[in-house]
Amino acid sequence: MIATYVQALGGQAALQNAKTRVITGTVTNRDLTTANLTMTEKITGEARIELATQPNPTIRATNGTASWQIGGGGPGGGINARDITGFQVQQGFRLADFSLPLHLKERYPDLSVKPAYEMVDGKPAVVLTGTPYPHVTEELAFDRESGLLLRRTITSGTAGGFGIMALGEQIDYSDYRDVSGVKVPFALRHSTWNAVTTEKLNDVKINAPVADTIFAKPAAQ
Q1: Where exactly are the structural domains of the chain?
Q2: What are phi and psi of 176, to 5 degrees?
């Protein structure tokens, strides 16, 4: 199924030749508040997500090793960057999955196929299950006909007052379009236990110039 997915996206060579991806669009939450989105990624794992929230922007970035965030609540105020680790990093970069198709076997070393076909939005789907991190299980549902990824379902175990609690998330992908020989989903819906956001992409540029400095944590103001 992995080989079929890679081919559906444009093929191994096209994915390997795509070194950067710059996305612009909008994010709408369950309160129907919409903010402009810019997401910049490198195939080597760096990512930066910017939301034009008010009164201050929300920015989240990783250089592949260290990660940080501005805004979005938490200590440190709304304008200074703070380090994020663990589950915050995992959840914060769910949608920054530019390099995922080429590294599925590394991300999910224990992938297995569920024995029965499932339906996702009326489409027959093949579902793979894997464990990308300790206490995290994911199901990846691929369109049986096209091979494209339709849905990721994530269950994360986190420590709470009553032991380990299971937190669920779901990402739905649709409206795939060809961009420089690579198929990209232009509509995404991310549901968690406490939020629902819908991402609509307006423009995607493959191999746009990207400066490494944008992934570095800025000094405090």
Answers
A1: 2-215
A2: -70, 135
Cβ neighbours for 129, distance < 8 A, ≥ 6 positions apart: 111, 112, 113, 114, 137, 138, 139, 140
Comparing CA positions, the residue from 179, 184, 170, 176 lying closest to residue 206 is: 179
With b for 16 or more beta-carbon neighbours within 10 A and e for fewer, the 156-166 pattern comes to bbeeeeeeeee
Give dist(CA 188, CA 201) in Å, integer: 9
Name the phi and psi angles at 213, rounded to 5: -65, -25
Q: What CATH number matches the domain at 2-215, 2.60.40.4070, 1.10.357.140, 3.30.70.100, 2.50.20.10? A: 2.50.20.10
Q: How far apart are CA 109 and CA 106, in angstroms?
A: 5
> pTM to 2 decimals?
0.87
pLDDT digits (tens, 9 = 90+) for 31-61: 888 999 999 999 999 999 999 988 888 999 9
CB 67 within 8 Å of CB 85: yes
**Residue length of the chain:** 221
Q: What is the DSSP string of 12-81?
A: HHHHHH--EEEEEEEEEETT--EEEEEEEEETTS-EEEEE--SSS-EEEEE-SS-EEEESSSSTTTTTS-
